[in-house]
Specification:
By secondary structure, the protein is of the alpha/beta class. It contains twelve helices and seven strands. The protein has a domain of 127 residues: 3-Layer(aba) Sandwich (Rossmann fold). Helix 6 packs across helix 7. The protein binds adenosine-5'-diphosphate and magnesium ion.
């Protein structure tokens, strides 16, 4: 957990850093669109998303922040897997769609729904980096292990996987132990971490990234520091 919170906060911090950013909400529940107060794109059904470049562009919305645009989601995105199944090269369709947007933006950020699906395989093929929040618990560690294995078994490049510690509470022994183990087991875990924080939780009530209402809070600084780390990874690609 913490995918959407991270996508939203990285999107804004990267935009403030001078990058032209497009945040693409791929989750039918549309949480990142909600945080940016952008209405669901009722006209851009999943089928059009995949086949009509022009329509897709028309549905990109400006956010309230400079340099940051949003492509909102809608409920029809729950059908992505069915659509992909009917297409040839069913795991490479998203890459094709994103290609034409690449020239307009410095950074395309995809907020994905959970689970490993055909949509996520499209993401694995399209993305340069796959950010994976890991809560320092046994279950979350196991989920990262499954994802890693899936990459290996299906010939995806495991170097794309960028795990980071999310919702961390270092007052608990388990969080400390699991964090240490993760850093030992996975060389590419980001050094920074996102703390468990009531201030991050308030994003829902505020309908805004943390920078909009608590810019100086430690949790906001953690997202900023993690973005710097990510920027280095992106530059090294
Ligand atoms: N670091 C954090 N500390 C406290 N609450 C968090 C943190 N990150 C996310 N949350 C809260 O947990 C819930 C799920 O987070 P979210 O980012 O939407 O997860 P995902 O997109 O992975 O399902 C949200 O209510 C969010 O506000
Ligand atoms: Mg989410």
């Amino acid at each position: 957990m913490g995918k959407t919170a991270a996508a939203v906060n990285f999107a804004l911090t990267a935009a403030e850093d001078g990058n032209r950013v497009l945040l693409i909400d791929l989750d039918p529940q549309g949480a990142s669109s909600f945080y940016f107060r952008v209405k669901p794109s009722s006209k851009l059904k999943a089928k059009l998303f995949l086949s009509e470049q022009e329509k897709l562009r028309q549905n990109i919305r400006a956010s309230d922040y400079a340099n940051l645009d949003i492509l909102p989601a809608n409920l029809s995105y729950r059908n992505f897997d069915v659509m992909f199944k009917q297409m040839s090269r069913s795991k490479h369709q998203l890459r094709k769609v994103l290609k034409s947007l690449k020239s307009d933006y410095d950074l395309l950020l995809l907020d994905c729904p959970p689970s490993i699906s055909l949509l996520s395989e499209n993401v694995f093929n399209a993305a340069d980096l796959v950010l994976v929040p890991v809560i320092p618990t046994t279950l979350s560690e196991r989920t990262l292990g499954q994802l890693w294995r899936f990459f290996k078994d299906n010939d995806y490049d495991t170097r794309k996987i960028c795990p980071f510690l999310s919702m961390v509470n270092y007052r608990t022994r388990m969080h400390k132990d699991v964090s240490e183990r993760l850093h030992k087991d996975y060389k590419r875990v980001l050094q920074g971490y996102i703390p468990l924080s009531a201030e991050i939780e308030k994003m829902g009530a505020q309908r805004a990234p943390i920078f909009a209402y608590a810019r100086n809070h430690i949790a906001a600084k953690c997202y900023q520091m993690m973005w710097s780390e990510l920027r280095n990874r992106i530059e090294a690609l």
